[in-house]
Amino acid sequence: MNSAARQPDGMRVVRLDLWIDPAFDASFERKPGLSVDVLPARGEAITAAGLAGAHAYHVSAAKDEVPARWQVTDSLLAQCPSLLCVSSGGAGYDTVDVTACTRAGVAVVNQAGANAASVAEMTFALLLSLVKRLRESQAALLAGTAASREALMGREIDGRTLGIVGIGEIGRRVARVAAGFGMRVLACDPLLPPEEIRARGAEPVSLPQLLEQADVVSLHCPLNDETRGMIGAEAYAMMRPGALFISTARGGIHDEQALLAALQDGRLAGAGLDVWSQEPPPPGHGLLLRSDVVATYHTGGVTHEGRRKVAQGSASQIMDMLAGRRPARLLNPEVWPRFLERLAQRQR
Q1: Keyword Endoplasmic reticulum: yes or no (predicted)?
Q2: Which tens digits make up the pLDDT trace of 82-105?
């Protein structure tokens, strides 16, 4: 089946009643033969029934937002015999078992790149907040203890070395911005050849080399079996004394307790964190209590522009798949022939 395939007829797209930019629902209003059902995230029978008859499922990428029962697992797929495709509402896909979907003949897409500008900007918001000591300066002003500007003296990032772990859509934007700040950029990415990493604006290095050379280490890789717990006590020990650690990737890639220990013993000079193993982290979390940590609530990609582009991208890819057109961000390309067979059976 190709782009000339006939348009879908009576296809049901479902999503949970979690916040999404109105552009998602609006996209389907202009498409006859497609309907969008909004199911209660905290529902039981009504949500199960709605998913059981769905042909496409848009699901939030945030694991702490989606109840475990409605995350895309073998168990859920067994209850959804009509399901043809799943769209993750972000670059990540923590709520979707892609391998299970492939076994079931279900195509999976994400929205990589849709909020890349937003996340790249957050990376530098965290970094600049650290080196300019914005948290400490504001605290001193609020407490009335700001007696000397020199006591709050910050640093420049010009001439420093930035190490990017994962130079995909977001990582390459970070590399471009870093060059504008006068930074040297290193990157490691096992999915890309050295020449492509160079084309994206960075010097290719191994992860150990990056950790040893970078003044700032910034994570932009997905959370999967290969990256889970990748940055732990051993990795922090390899980093340069006084280095900064930034993550706008996913909680679980870095070990939070090992990071806290590296800050407490003075090995690292600070951390900027937008992602957490538990989101939001508990108020008494040790990292939140430190003045050398700038913390946000996984809001790097949560901008009006980023969320709108994610919603539009998800709707567009779902419409492509249901019309038999291969989507731009297919995570399991090996499923495509079987997906087309299942779609054709549905259209007979």
Answers
A1: no
A2: 999 999 999 889 899 999 999 999
H helix count then E strand count, the chain:
13, 12
**Under CATH, which number does the domain 115-295 receive?**
3.40.50.720
- In the sheet with 243-247, reading across from the earlier edge strand, the strands are 203-204, 184-188, 161-165, 216-219, 243-247, 268-273, 293-295
Instruction: Tell me how far apart the alpha carbons of residues 318 and 157 are, in angstroms, rounded to a whole number.
Output: 42
Q: Which residues are part of the catalytic machinery? A: 250, 279, 298
Third-level CATH fold of 11-110+304-347: Rossmann fold (3.40.50)
Distance (Å, rounded) from C-alpha 73 to C-alpha 6?
30
Instruction: Give the Cβ contact number of residue 26 at 10 Å.
Output: 13
pLDDT lower than 50: segments of the chain: 1-7
> What DSSP character marks residue 281?
P
pTM of the model: 0.87
Cis before residue 241, ω within 30 degrees of 0?
Answer: no
Residues of the chain with CATH 3.40.50.720: 11-110+304-347, 115-295
